[in-house]
Each structure stands twice: as structure tokens, then as C-alpha cells.
């Protein structure tokens, strides 16, 4: 809660003890370290994380950064040159001016009517996934399965192309990007210049080359064929800026790679955590099954995008306990007062979904999995829950992600019940987490696939 401090700086570990905090960042999951810092020092903590930073778990301060004074905050420069090159000038990482022009062109791609054009695709891919599960002998690897289905969906939504022939290389390339991001963001000290052929640099260069050639090839082929396909690629090729200009191949490549990287792992992670929680909460799981048997939403030709279905609430509540993106950051352009302290320009603020979503001041029994929390309006502050960020840079794919997740979850649960085989804990939150950009379960979650009797 905000209080007034005029001269002092926010509390936090002293520079020397920061070394031991840094060690924790490396040995434990980032979110565990963030929780410890909040428990020890409160809702604003001074930390040295790639420079002077402030960890924040206060909804009013987060609103100030993302919304009311957003002009004072730029996106933090967390990527080194090589990762920046991979994302290019896609919306996620674009500089302010470019972002302003580009987002006007991209926004229509994510309108509800545009999202609904992918309904049948999501249904088909989910049916194929469930059929595979039934044929499979033994337990399934939950996260690998949700990644596989969301990758197929985003691949076809973007290119109308079956990504299966490229799936292994694509997954490897995305895993390299994730590993590199984890190394760079979690790294303490300068990263090795791009031109030095270390194994990391070579791996990332190879992954970037593969993604580039795949996407440029698809763009090129589409420009020379009249497939009549209605997908994100054709919509980007047809898009015009305010000056009536079409997008360059590089701009199209940057946006598509951004959708691929930002769009599939996040949704897959949300779904995997949701199923993990359902396995630990059989009565909620059964309620969800009962809902699938009684609703028209799942079978409607174009289910309304903004309906608050039980499947959506199950996903929203899972993203509260396990936000796929557990922390985002911004850099102060000029000093600003947050939580009663004046923070200097050039420092970073780390806004943590993970800490806010489990904050006892705003959530009653935060570790209880209760989808009903999202059943109606609430008087909680807006930024006590912000899995998709907020303000102008809020996730552009949020409605797509929730729509896709509800359909996949609802359709699969209508057909089968997953039961946790391993890991097994008395309390579900004993599971170890691993955070790079996204926060994922560290152990492989294995489930068996059963019928509802
Ligand atoms: C459960 C799934 C998802 C989660 C939790 C999620 C989370 C987020 C968050 C937290 C941000 C804000 C980052 C910041 O402010 O620094 C963001 C931005 C973004 N996301 Fe998502 N995302 C999801 C799905 C998707 C999908 C499906 C797509 C596209 C197909 C997508 C594309 C983007 C893009 C392009 C941005 C940058 C928006 C801008 O700066 O204008 N995301 N996402």
C-alpha cells in the first residue's frame, strides 16, 4: 500500500548481499527469489539487476507505470543485439515511433471477428490432439502436448501451412531462443559479443537463420501464388499503413516471428498449468466436464469471443496462480514517484504478475484454485491481475489466446479426463518452476488419459 517517504530510497538488500541474491536467481527460479524479496522488504524493493531496479507489487504503482504515466516509461532493453535481431521491429520489441505506426496496421488482425475465423482450425487441431492421446500408449507429456497443439494452430493461422514437417526444427529453434533468453536475462555480466563464435552465439545464429529462411520462403511463395488463403500472412500482405503503403517483407517477417514466439509458448504454458491445477482439483475438473455437456458455446458456428465461459474462468484462475509471464519491466525516462519514493531516471521497474496475483491484500486464500473468482465484476484494483500487461502495450493477442485456450480445454475435457501420474506432491504448489520469459513447470508433467465414466 502506498505511504509517503520523501528522502529515503526504497528498502532492499545491500549491494554486497546482492551477490547472494544473484546466486539465488541462478539456483532457484526467479519467481521464488522475487517472493523472498517481497516477503523481506515489502511491496517496493530496491534491487541491482542489470543496473538499479525496483521490484514492485503494488497495483496503484503498476497502473501509474503502465497507464496513467506511461509516457514516462520505455520498454527496458533486456535483449542483447542477437535476440533483438531475431525479434526485429515486431510489435513486442518495436521502438515507440515504429510501434505507433505498426500497431494501427496489426490491431485489425486481432479483432473478435478476425479471431472467430480460426474457430474451425482450433477445433480440428484439438480433435487431432485428443485422437493422438487415445492412440498413445502410456502417459502423455502435458506441456509438450499443449505446445504441439498451439504451435500447429498458430502456424496454420499465420500461413495456412501444416508446420508438422518443420515441427522438430521449429521446436528446437524456439527452445534455443528460450534458453538464450534465460541465459541473458538471468545472466550477470556482459554477454559475449555476437561475432565471437561461442556455442551459444552459434546456436542462436542457427535458430535465427532457420526461422528467417522458413518465414521469408513462405512470404515469397505466397506473393507468387494465388492460393486464396485467408490467414495472417495474406492479411499482412494486404494491409496498408495510414499513408497507403504496404508492409515490407522485413516488417511482415518481424511481426510473424513475434506472433510465433510471443503467441504459442505463452498459451501452451497457460493451458498446461490449468490442466495441472484441474488434476489437483477433481471437483472443478468434473464441473468443467458437466459444463461441456450442457453448453452451446463449444459447438456454435462462431462462439462469442468475449463470453465468460467456465472454461475461460478455469484458464483465468490458472493464470492468476501461475501467470505465464511472471514479470515485465520498464525503464524510467525521468524521475517519478512510486509507492511514496522518488525513483531516478534510467532505473528499471520490475512489475510482477506473480507477486500481485498471489498478494494476500487483494486475494483471499491466494493458493486456493477457485475459477468462480472470475464469475462477475469485482472491486479488486485493476492491476491486482494483469497477466497480459496493461496500457498501450497490453498484449495484442490476449483475446485470441483466451478464445483458443477455452476451445482447446473445453473440447478436450468434453472427451477425456486427465489424471496426474507424476510429479506427485501433497500440495500442488510444491512443484518447481522455471522462468525465462515464460514461467513453466520445471519437472515434466505426465498424465494418463481416461474416459469420464
Ligand atoms: C496466455 C497467453 C499470453 C500471455 C500470458 C501473454 C502475455 C503478454 C504480456 C504480459 C505482454 C506485455 C509485455 C510488456 O508489456 O512488456 C504481451 C505483449 C504482446 N503479446 Fe502476448 N501473451 C499471450 C498470448 C499472445 C498471443 C497468442 C499473441 C499473438 C499471436 C501475442 C502477441 C503479443 C504481442 C505482439 C505483444 C506486444 C504488444 C505491444 O507491445 O503492442 N501474445 N503478451
Please summarize what this structure is.
The protein is of the alpha+beta class and 453 residues long.
Task: Name its key features.
453 residues; globular; five-stranded mixed β-sheet; 16 helices; binds protoporphyrin IX containing FE; alpha+beta; 49% helix; Cytochrome p450
Q: Mind explaining what this structure looks like?
A:
The chain is of the alpha+beta class and 453 residues long. The chain has one domain (18-442): Cytochrome P450 (Cytochrome p450, Orthogonal Bundle). It is 49% helix and 10% strand. The chain has helices at residues 18-27, 30-41, 59-68, 81-87, 96-106, 112-116, 119-135, 142-159, 167-186, 199-223, 232-238, 249-280, 282-294, 310-321, 353-357, 398-415; strands at 44-48, 52-56, 73-75, 140-141, 328-332, 336-338, 341-343, 348-351, 417-422, 433-435, 439-441, 446-450. A 5-stranded mixed β-sheet has the order 1-2-8-5-3, with helices on both faces. Helix 12 (249-280) crosses helix 16 (398-415) and helix 13 crosses helix 16 (398-415). The model has no long low-confidence stretch (mean pLDDT 89). Protoporphyrin IX containing FE binds next to helix 12 and helix 16. Protoporphyrin IX containing FE binds at residues 91-92, 103, 258-259, 262-263, 266-267, 270, 324-325, 328, 387-389, 393, 395-397, 400-401.
